Amino acid sequence: MDLGRLQFALTAFLHFSFVVVTLGLAPFLAYLNSRAVFTRKPALRPVFDRMTRFWGQVYVINYALGIVTGLVMEFQFGLSWTGLSRLTGDVFGTTLAMETIVAFFVESTFLGVWIFGWHLLPRWAHLLSFYVVTATAYASAYWIMVTNGFLQNPVGFAKRDDGTMYLTDLSALLTNEGALPALYHLAAASLGVGGFLVAGASAWHFLRGTDDPEVFRRSLHGGVALGLGGVWLAVLNGFTQLSFIGDQEGKSAAVHGDAEALAAYQAEMTELLGPGDWAPPEWLSTAFMTMQMAGYLAWTIAFVAACFFFRRRIEQNRTMLRILLWTIPLPFVAVLCGWLIREMGRQPWAVYGEVAVKDALSDISAGSMLLSLIAFVSVFAVLAVIDWVLIARTVRRGTSRMFLGLTLGDNPEGNGPTGGDGSRAERDEQGRRTASDTDAGTLSPLPPL
Predict the structure, then answer these.
(1) Given this model, what pLDDT does residue 447 score?
(2) Euclidean distance between CA atoms 253 and 279, whole angstroms
(3) Domain coordinates in residue numbering, the chain
(4) CA atoms of 300 and 308, how far apart (whole Å)
(5) DSSP code of 165?
(6) 273 touches 261 (CB < 8 A)
(7) Nearest to residue 223, comparing CAs of 65, 55, 111, 59?
(8) Which of 5, 19, 82, 363 is deepest in the core (most CB within 10 A)?
(9) In the prediction, which pLDDT does 413 show?
């Protein structure tokens, strides 16, 4: 049982780090793409186009590798948690299926349209495809939180004689108080993660001396604003989570570090489930304190950074730039501590008050569980390292070497920040000049295709 819990905790922990980046960057990219399409200042259109392409690369890398970790997460229900699937699959299997349809079919399809439709689709249609991507990303998060909300606060079900659950009230399941407030909190925290990632990466470019200051100045300001707003909303929504924590005795006792209440809860669970270590871990109070401190500190840093917006002082203040660079992990720490509290505090229940963790496990040996633990965690760790290495390399290259949105005349090795960002008329003119040169024999003697 301990191996099974550790396996799910570590894989969920790593997968979740991909999810929050995706949710945090998607609205920011939608905004940049909208400015690139609808801005009334022609001089700004290439700037926003480069910003969209640059941060879109980070999004695509993170999304592609995150998809793989999401697949493994669902495999675990059939490998390690068949008891949970058998007893409750008729309820939360519906919401998991909806998440799969939304994420893997709709979101992935339209992301492909956005990636490969650059300069081929009308600009408004290309933009619309990413709005669909953003909407389905949050729809996917909704279905996942509805599924998790049922595990936290089971509603809308009845039990058969054999103990299996079946759905009786879809409305109660979809509006579960264990899901919707947590979704708002998660969405806001993800915006904070995305904002600080953008701000920190932009700060790095100013510290090293960027060759595209306009792109990274606007990115820096946008990232700080997004991080400030996201963290502040997460703090406000976090207070609603405290009332929900109070409904779970063991979680409440662990979060508040109440040793006496934890001992009473352990005695109650021992009487109900038999001998065992059933109380949530005491270190959840440390995780709760760390989450709060990280959130407040991130908000303070973003607020101070925003005060430097005037007269472009933030780009010139190397101390502030270094602080923003080193603050990138801070929102991740807050988000992951919150997830640990939500999941570990549910001990000893897989479905709170209904299905114990020991009954949710598959009937397999400890050796088999250990083997799958090593395999899954190793794969996830490798994917996480690859993700961050690729993102770091992409960020370091800047806007002069971008792969997203390349056109026929672009040089992917980089000829400055303007490649591939001209207007449609400029590209057509370039094509006419190329055709003219070809006809005059100044290029290759090969016949035209």
Answers:
(1) 35
(2) 9
(3) 179-363
(4) 13
(5) E
(6) no
(7) 55
(8) 19
(9) 53
Cβ-contact 257, 288 below 8 angstroms = no
List of long-range contacts for 432-438, beta carbons under 8 Å, 24+ apart: 434/409
**Predicted pLDDT at 66:** 86
At position 218, the amino acid (one-letter code) is R
Q: To which residue do tokens 């979101």 refer?
A: 107
Contact 192, 234 (CB under 8 A): yes
Can you point out the beta strands (E) in 300-348?
none
The answer to whether the beta carbons of residues 361 and 80 sit under 8 Å apart is yes
Nearest 10 degrees: Cα torsion 121, 398, 197, 137: 20
Dihedral sign, Cα of residue 248, residue 252, residue 255, residue 260: negative
Angle 96-99-103 (CA atoms, 0-180°, nearest 5)?
145
CB 274 within 8 A of CB 348: no
Task: State the pLDDT at residue 415.
Answer: 43
* CA 188 – CA 197 distance, rounded (Å): 14
Nearest residue to 405 (alpha-carbon basis) of 429, 422, 386 = 422
Q: At what angle do helices 213-245 and 2-38 cross, to 10 degrees?
A: 140
The predicted structure's pLDDT at residue 55: 96
Among 34, 435, 401, residue whose Cα is nearest residue 222: 34
How far apart (Å, rounded) are the C-alpha atoms in residues 92 and 153?
A: 12
3-state secondary structure of 33: helix
Query: How many other C-beta atoms can be found within 10 angstroms of the C-beta atom of residue 153?
Result: 18
Q: What angle do CA 385, 391, 397 make, to 5 degrees?
A: 135
Q: Residues 294-303: pLDDT tens digits?
A: 999 999 999 9
Closest CA to 47 of 203, 200, 212, 205: 212
Please say whether the beta carbons of 286 and 349 come within 8 A: no
Element (H, E) at 81: none
189-212 burial, b if ≥16 CB within 10 A, otherwise e? bbbbbbbbbbbbbbbbbbeeebeb
Biggest alpha carbon–alpha carbon distance for the chain: 92
Report the C-alpha gap between 241 and 243 in whole angstroms: 5
Rounded-to-integer distance, Cα 409 and Cα 437, Å: 14
The answer to whether residues 324 and 196 touch, using CB atoms and an 8 Å cutoff, is yes
**Mean pLDDT in each 10-residue stretch from start to end of the chain (449 residues)?**
86 87 96 93 92 96 87 79 90 86 87 93 94 95 92 92 92 91 93 96 93 93 95 88 80 90 92 89 92 94 89 84 94 91 89 91 90 87 89 91 74 48 45 40 35
